[in-house]
Amino acid sequence: MKLLLWALVAASICVSACTAVAPYQRGYLARDDMALEGNPGFAKAIEKTFAAKEAASGGASVGGGGCGCN
Amino acid sequence: MRALGCALALLLAPGAFALEAGGAVPELAVARLEEPAQALSLASLRGSVVYVDFWASWCVPCRLSMPALDALYKQNRARGFAVVGVNKDVSVADARRFLVKVPVTFALASDAQDAAARAFDVKAMPSGYLVDRKGIVRKVHRGFTAETAETLAREVEALLKEPS
Question: What's the pTM value of the predicted model, to 2 decimals?
Answer without folding.
Answer: 0.77
